[in-house]
Specification:
The complex is a heterotetramer, with two copies of chain A (326 residues) and two copies of chain B (366 residues). With 326 residues, chain A is of the alpha/beta class. Chain A is built from twelve helices and 14 strands. In chain A, the strands form three sheets. Chain A has a seven-stranded mixed β-sheet, with helices on both faces. The chains are: A alpha/beta (326), B alpha/beta (366).
Chain lengths: 326, 366, 366, 326
C-alpha cells in the first residue's frame, strides 16, 4: 500500500515502524516529546510509545550524544535529534571522540551504533546557525556514516537502514524540502542500502553529482539545459560516507564530464573529494576539468543576503554550459 | 541581601505583591518616583513594541521573533542600572535592555528581517551581538570580565541566559571560570519556566537555579522576576558587589514567558490555560502600574496616550527598517576576514559574471 | 549518612585517623575482618603493580602510565562493593577497580604498550574502556544508567573523574541529566588536588566538590579518600541509595596524587616537598595497615612475603604482555565499521602492495 | 643575530617577543603557566610576564576558547593553548559558532582575532586522541585561518604573523618535529606572511605538496628518488587556509604532475582540495592524475599499530614513482 507523504511524514513513519518493531529503539532530544520536534518529525510518537521511549531531554547537545553512547553500549538503539545541525556543534567532542570510535577502541566489544538526526541546510529564511551544511566535516570522521536523503521515499528507506546499521549514522535532513516534495511512499517497511548512490537520470554529456535539496535544483537545471540538447546524467549521492565512488566513476567514464553541486561551502568540501576521485580513477576519460558549484566560502548570510549564496538552477545550468563547452 | 536570601534558604526576594503593594520595606530599593515612572514607561514601550512585532510577523513582514511578553521587569530593571561603559552580553529575549544600551528598534527589526546590520548596534557602546547558540555567550561575558579586571576598569558585565540554557556545559564553564577569576559579571537567568516546549522540571532536578551558585563558590539569589523593585534591588546590589572585586553573581529571575517561544511556536500544545491564568495575575506591568496608581503617579488615561505615541514611533522605525534597502553582494564576502583572501575575491567575481550572464541570457531569451 | 554529612555543613566523612584508629564508630561500616584484610591485600597489589609499572616505563618498556600512588583506598573500596553485573565507567587512575572488575594486569600493560587490546578486557563484564577526553565518560555512565532504569535491572554504574575533570561542561551535563533521570549512577571524584600541574584552587572557587551536588538536586558527600572505611561506607550507601531508585550520588574522595601525573611529568616543578610530606602521613595503605596491625590481622613480615609474590606475578604478566606479538595490518582497518566500506578494503590492499614493493625493491636494491 | 632553536624554542621566542611588545597579548590554557605547557612551549613566560598575562586555566576547552572570544571583543589579544589538538574538540562550538564569526556577525565592529595554538599529529607513541590531524575540518570553517609550520624558522615567523593577524588563527604545531629539527633562527622579530606557500626545492618532474612534519619525510623521499633521476619540486603549504592555489598551480603547470602528502586521513582531506584546484586550473597541463599519499581512513592506531598508518619516505617515494611512470 502506498500513501502520499512529505519528508517529515516519511521519517516519522520510519521511526514509527522501528519503535513498534524494536523495544530497544529510544527517541529523544530537545522538544521531540510533547511538541514532536520543532519541525514535527517526531509528532505523535510520545503518545504512542510513552515518555520512556520518546522524550524531551534537557537542553544540552553534548549530553544528548554522550548519554546515547552509554545507551548503545548497554544495548539500546538511540535515535537522537539535534534541533538544527548548527546545534550539533556542542556535541562535536562526544561524536568525534566516542560515537565514531567506541567500536574500534573496544575492538568490537562495544558499539555506539546510534542514529543522529538533524535538519540541515539553508533556504528557509532562518537566523544565524540555522542554515549550516557541514556534512564534509562529519564525513571526515572515521567510524561515522553520513546520509542525506533527497525525497520522502529515500528518507524513509534510508532511515530504516540507518536504525538497523551496525554503525553510527549521521542522518542529515534537508529541511528546505521537508514539506516541499510530496510523493507516494510504500507504507510497509523497506530499506535503502547506505553507501550506494543512485543514478536518477540517465544522460551522456555530463555527470552531475548532488544530494539533498540540491537534487531538485539540478533537475530544474536539467530542464533548462534540454533546449541546448545537453543530456545530463544525474547522480543522487544519498550517502556522503561511505562514498560510492564506483557509481560516479562509471558515469564519468561514459560522459567525460563532471559537475558536483552542493550548498555547503567550496573549499575542503564534498565536491573536492568527488573531483579528486574522478581524476584519480577516470583521468583518461575526462574531456573537461571536473567542476564544483557550491556555496561560497563564507558564513551563510541572514535571509536578506541568502539569495547571493544559495544555488539557483540557473547557476547550475550556467556551469553545465561552461563545462560542456570547455 | 545576599545573606538574607541565601539560596540555601529557598527564599525568593520579593518586594511588591501582585497588587503593587510594597510588602518588604526592608529591601525596598532607594529609587525616585520619577525613576520608577520612567522605568514603567520603558517597559510599556517594550511591551508595545513586542506586541506590534508579533503582528508584523503575522503579516509576513518579518521572519521570526522571540516575544518578551511577561518578562519585561527583568530587562526593565537592568535598563535603569546599566551604564554606557558597562557591557551587555545578551541572549535574545531582553528587548528593554537592548534599547537601554542604545540599540534602536529599527536595528532590532532589521535583524529579524534578515540583515546582519541589525546586530551591529551603531550607537550602542559595549553591546555584543545576540548569541544564537544557547548559553555560549556566557563565556564571552567572562572573558570581557577578565579584561575589566586586567585593565582595572570601572565596569561590570551584564549577561543573560534562559532556564533551558542552564543545562548547557557552557553555563557551567562560564560560572566556574568567573568564580576562579572573580570576574565582575552579573549572570541573569530568566527562568521563564520553559525552554521552547520543555518545562523547567525537565531541565534540572535542583531547587531552582540560584542554588547552582554554590557549585562555583559565588553569590546567588532568587528573585521575583515579575517584581520590578525586587529585580532593581538585586541587580543594583549585584553590580556593586561585582564591581567591588568580590566576584560574579548569579541572579535567578523567576518569571513566565506569557507569549510563544517564537512566532512559529504554539504554546497551547504543551501547557494549560490554568497555568497561564495563574501567571497572569503576576504580570510585571500590571503590578508596577498598580503601584504607580496607588502613588498617584500614573493613570489609565496616561497609558492610553503613551501607547498611541509609542505605536506611531514603533511603526515609524519599522517602516525605516523595511526601507533599509538591498543587500549588496559584497556584504556576504567582506566581513569574513580582516583581509579578504584571494579565494573570496575570485568567488565574488565569478558570481558577478554569472549574474551578468543571467541578465544577458534572459534578455536574449537564450 | 547523607544528612549528617550534607555538603553544606562542610564536613568530611572520616572513620579512621592517620594512625589507623577508628574515631567514628557511628559510621563504621559493617565489614568482616577477613574482608578488610582482603581489601588491604588488593590495595597492596595495586600499589606494587603501580610501582613496578613506573619502573618498566623508566626502562623504556612501556610508553606512559598514570600512577595511582596515594589514591588506592578509593578504588580499593569500590573493588569490594562493585558486582559483576554493575557497570564500571572509568577515567584512567583506578587500577584497583579495573582489576576487581576482571581486567588483567596484562591487559593494563598492553594498553600502555600501545595495543588497543589492552582496553578490550576479555574477562570483564560491563567495563567500558578508559576515556581519554577528560569528563566525557560521565555522560556514558548516565546513558547506561538510563538503560538500567528502562529495563528495570538490578545494577548500578560506578564512574570516576578527577578534580580537574569537574571543570568540564560534560561534568555538569552528566550530573544534570542524571538528576533529571534519577539514573542509578555513583559519581566518584578523585580530588587528588591537581590536574597535571594545576592546583585545585585554580580549578574552582567552590568549597570542595561535594557541594556541587546542590546544583543538580542530588545527594553529595565529601569523604576522606585515604580512609578505606570511610570510602567503603560512602560507596556502599551510595550504591544502595542509587539502586533503590533515589537517583545519583556525587562522592568527593579527598586524596592526593603522591606520584607524578604520568611518567612524563615532574611534580617538583609545581609543588613543595612540605606539601608532599603533609600528605605522606595520610597515606591510605599506611593507615589501613596500622588498623590491621592493631587488630593483629597483619604483620610487616606478611607484607614482605606478599610483595615478593606480587612482584613475581606482576612481572609474569608484564612479560606476557611484552610477548603479545605483532599488530597485524588489518587490525587498523577492521574495527572502524561494522561492515567495512570498500574504501578501507582498497586502502588495505594498497598498503599491502606497497609493502610487497618495498620488500622486493629492498631485496633487489632498487 | 642568529641562535640555534628547535620549534619549541622558536615558538616560545615568538610569544616572548609579542608579550614584551604588546601588553594586550595574554597567554593561557591548561598547565601553560608554572609548568610551561606539557611540551614546554610556554616555559619561563609566566615568570617573566606575571600570572595575569600567562596563566593556567581550569580544565575546560570550551571555556578557554569562549573566554578568549570575550577578551578579544574587549580588545585583548589572547594566545590560547589546547593541550593536544584532540582536546580542541570540546571547544568546537565556540570556535565554529563564535571565534570564526564575530567579525561577520557584527559587521566588523568586533573581532575574535585570537591565536589558538596546539600540538597536533602522530608519530610520538601517544595514547588515543593525542595524534589526530583534523586540519581539514578547521580549514573548512569560514573566518578561520589555519597555519602549520614545518621548521623552527617558519614557526617563529608565522607565530608572529598569527598574533598580528586581524583574524583568528589556528596554529597547529607538528609535535613530532617539536625538537627533532634544529636550525639557526633570527633572534630579532620577523614575520612570514600567512596564506603563502613556499617552494622549498625546485624541480621539473613532479610537484609534491606537503606541510608540517611531512615536509621532512618528503625531503627524504626526494633523496631516494634522486637515484632514479627524478627531479622533484617540493612545496611547503605553510598555510592550509587561505590556501595558496597560485603557487601550486604554477608549479604543476611546469611539472605536469602532482602528489599531495599529509598524515591526516584521505577522504575529505586537504589533498582533495589540492587535487581539485590543480585539475580546475591546470587541466591541460596534467600528464598524470594528481595523487594523494595520506593516512588511511581510520582512527589513528595506538603506538604498536602506528607504523601501518604513518607515512614513510618509502611510501612517498613509491607513489612518486607511480605518478612519474604513469
Ligand atoms: C546550542 C543550541 N541548542 C539548541 C538551540 C535551539 N533553541 C533555541 S531557543 C531554545 C530554548 C531556550 O530556552 P531557554 O534557555 O529557557 O530560553 P527562553 O527561550 O525560554 O528565553 C532552543 C532549544 C539553540 N539555539 N542553541
Ligand atoms: C578534554 C581533555 N582536555 C585535556 C586533556 C589532557 N589531560 C589529561 S589528564 C589532565 C588532567 C586531569 O586532571 P584530573 O581530572 O584532576 O585527573 P587526575 O589526572 O588528577 O587524576 C589533562 C588536562 C584531556 N585528556 N582531555
Ligand atoms: Mg526559558
Ligand atoms: Mg586531579
Amino acid at each position: 500500500m502506498k500513501k502520499v507523504m512529505n519528508m517529515v511524514n516519511a521519517i516519522n513513519d520510519a521511526l514509527d515502524i522501528k519503535l513498534k518493531e524494536d523495544r530497544n529503539v529510544i527517541v529523544y532530544g530537545e522538544d521531540v516529546g510533547v511538541e514532536g520536534g520543532v519541525f514535527r518529525v517526531t509528532e505523535g510518537l510520545q503518545k504512542k510509545y510513552g515518555v520512556e521511549r520518546v522524550f524531551d531531554s534537557p537542553l544540552a547537545e553534548s549530553a544528548i550524544a554522550g548519554t546515547a553512547v552509554g545507551m548503545s553500549i548497554a544495548g539500546l538503539k538511540p535515535v537522537i535529534e539535534m534541533q538544527f545541525s548548527g546545534f550539533a556543534n556542542p556535541a562535536f567532542n562526544q561524536i568525534v571522540s566516542h560515537v565514531s570510535r567506541m567500536r574500534n577502541r573496544s575492538r568490537g566489544k562495544y558499539t555506539s551504533d546510534m542514529v543522529i538526526r538533524m535538519p540541515y541546510g539553508g533556504g528557509i529564511n532562518a537566523l544565524e546557525h540555522h542554515s549550516e551544511s557541514i556534512e564534509a566535516i562529519w564525513a571526515h570522521i572515521p567510524g561515522l556514516k553520513v546520509v542525506i536523503p533527497s525525497t520522502p521515499h529515500d528518507a524513509k528507506g534510508l532511515m530504516i537502514a540507518a536504525i538497523e546499521s551496525p554503525d553510527p549514522v549521521f542522518f542529515m535532513e534537508p529541511k528546505r524540502i521537508y514539506r516541499a516534495i510530496k510523493q507516494e511512499v510504500d507504507e510497509e517497511k523497506f530499506s535503502i542500502p547506505i553507501g550506494k548512490a543512485k543514478v536518477i537520470q540517465k544522460g551522456t554529456d555530463i555527470t552531475v553529482v548532488a544530494y539533498g535539496a540540491m537534487i531538485r535544483e539540478v533537475q530544474k537545471a536539467a530542464v533548462l539545459a534540454k533546449k541546448d540538447n545537453i543530456s545530463i546524467e544525474i547522480i543522487d549521492l544519498r550517502t556522503i560516507y561511505p562514498i560510492d565512488r564506483d557509481t560516479i566513476v562509471e558515469s564519468v567514464k561514459k560522459t567525460g564530464r563532471l559537475l558536483t553541486v552542493h550548498e555547503a561551502i567550496k573549499t575542503f568540501g564534498v565536491g573536492a573529494e568527488i573531483s579528486s576521485t574522478v581524476i584519480e580513477e577516470a583521468f583518461l576519460y575526462l574531456e573537461a576539468p571536473p567542476k564544483r558549484v557550491t556555496g561560497y566560502d563564507v558564513i551563510v548570510p541572514l535571509p536578506k543576503g541568502e539569495h547571493h549564496f544559495i544555488i539557483s538552477p540557473e547557476r547550475i545550468y550556467y556551469e553545465i554550459l561552461r563545462t560542456v563547452k570547455y | 541581601m545576599f545573606k538574607e536570601y541565601d539560596p540555601i534558604k529557598n527564599k525568593m526576594l520579593q518586594i511588591m505583591d501582585n497588587d503593587g503593594k510594597i510588602i518588604n520595606e526592608k529591601f525596598m530599593p532607594d529609587i525616585d518616583d520619577s525613576e520608577v515612572l520612567e522605568a514603567y514607561k520603558k517597559m510599556l514601550f517594550a511591551r508595545t513594541a513586542d506586541n506590534m512585532t508579533v503582528s508584523y510577523q503575522r503579516q509576513g513582514r518579518i521572519f521570526t521573533y522571540p516575544p518578551n511578553y511577561g518578562q519585561e521587569a527583568i530587562s526593565g530593571a537592568v535598563a535603569r542600572i546599566m551604564r554606557d561603559e558597562d557591557w551587555l552580553v545578551p541572549a535574545f529575549r531582553e528587548l528593554g535592555a537592548y534599547l537601554a544600551k542604545g540599540a534602536s528598534l529599527k536595528e532590532v527589526f532589521l535583524y529579524f528581517m534578515g540583515y546582519e546590520e541589525g546586530v551591529n548596534f551603531k550607537n550602542a557602546k559595549n553591546f555584543v551581538p545576540y548569541a544564537v547558540p544557547i548559553a555560549s555567550q556566557l563565556l564571552h561575558a567572562v572573558g570581557i570580565g577578565y579584561e575589566i579586571k586586567y585593565n582595572k576598569k570601572d565596569q561590570v558585565v551584564y549577561t543573560f541566559v534562559g532556564d533551558g540554557g542552564t543545562s548547557e556545559g557552557d553555563f557551567h564553564e562560564a560560572l566556574n571560570f568567573a568564580g576562579v577569576w572573580k570576574a565582575p559579571v552579573v549572570f541573569i537567568v530568566q527562568n521563564n519556566q520553559y525552554g521552547i516546549s520543555t518545562p523547567f522540571r525537565l531541565q534540572t532536578a535542583s531547587d531552582g537555579i540560584a542554588i547552582k551558585s554554590y557549585a562555583y563558590g559565588i553569590k546567588g539569589i532568587q528573585v521575583d522576576g515579575n517584581d520590578f523593585f525586587a529585580m532593581y534591588k538585586a541587580v543594583k546590589e549585584s553590580a556593586e558587589y561585582a564591581k567591588a572585586g568580590n566576584g560574579p553573581v548569579l541572579i535567578e529571575a523567576v518569571t513566565y514567558r506569557k507569549g510563544a517561544h517564537t512566532t512559529s511556536d504554539d504554546p497551547s500544545k504543551y501547557r494549560t490555560k490554568e497555568e497561564e491564568d495563574e501567571w497572569d495575575v503576576k504580570d510585571p506591568l500590571k503590578r508596577l502600574k498598580s503601584y504607580l496608581k496607588s502613588q498617584k503617579l500614573f493613570t489609565d488615561k496616561d497609558e492610553e496616550t503613551l501607547i498611541e505615541d509609542y505605536k506611531k514611533e514603533i511603526d515609524r522605525q519599522f517602516i525605516e527598517a523595511e526601507n533599509f534597502g538591498s543587500y549588496p553582494l559584497e556584504d556576504i564576502f567582506k566581513y569574513t576576514y580582516g583581509d579578504m583572501p584571494d579565494d573570496l575575491k575570485q568567488q565574488m567575481v565569478e558570481h558577478e559574471k554569472f549574474i551578468k550572464w543571467k541578465e544577458v541570457s534572459q534578455n536574449t531569451n537564450v
